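RECORD TYPE: protein structure
NAME: GNAT family N-acetyltransferase
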Amino acid sequence: MVTDDRSQDVAALRAFNRVYTNRLGLLNPHLDGSPFTLSEARILYELAHRVAPTAAEIGRALHLDRGQISRTLKRFSNRGLVEINDDPSHGRQQLLSLTAAGKASFNALDTKTQQAVSELLFGLPAFRRKRLIAAAETISEIFEAEEKPTVRLRSLQPGDLGRIVERQAILYAQEYGWNQDYEALAARIVADFHQSFDPAREDAWIAEMDNQMVGSIFLVKGESDAVAKLRLLYVEPDARGAGVGKMLVEACIARARDLGYEQLDLWTNSVLTAARAIYQRAGFKLVDEAPHHSFGHDLIGQTWSLTL
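PREDICTED:
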């Protein structure tokens, strides 16, 4: 039985599936008015796009059992759509190919499907069509991914600074109720970083999973040549627990050492417990704290420092 904390996600995916199958007509006995059911059409598609496949190969690709594949291929053979030949290199294996009639049937089906999907897509406003295609591509990428998502770090690209400000402002508002004063502060930090960027003394990283930004961190020069600052660390909620924060902080520390800094400082607030735990594990020590009223709340600001 699905637990309560997961039921909402399950319900959302089931609702999508109902809308999707209804709009594409996947529940109709025959797809797009053709003589083929959905499963028959998918098998026909595989036959048209593979070179001499076996029944087992198609079954694995479509996750269909051997009995269903066998019955469908028999119907295709009786209708003169598929040709079955023994594999000369493997006596117990048979190779499949479409006949001329089978290719003609596939081409007719493909044309009807292209037309039906085109009518569906271009019946939408351009803005919604673009959103639909992006969502479809994302769904395909997720379902076809073979490995667990891994974290990678990259340097800044155009658009990153604005996204960092946006995501941090939204997350801190959602999780801590901070107002737009924090958004303004984050915007000033990234603007100052960009305008006075010194590649010999500063750096920044974006963390990605599945090519999606899931976190950031900045290394900024301090008031003296010996001291640098760690700024704007954040990790997306869904990526927490995957080591993103640890990786970002370690990259920042390593770069600070490479650039010859002797000390790395950061300022945070006591309510940010997850970030503070990462700092402590990395060796930072609490050196100062003081109450302040910022972002619409009474907070306790903290300064942490790491000797490099």
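COMMENT: DSSP finds ten helices and nine strands in the chain.
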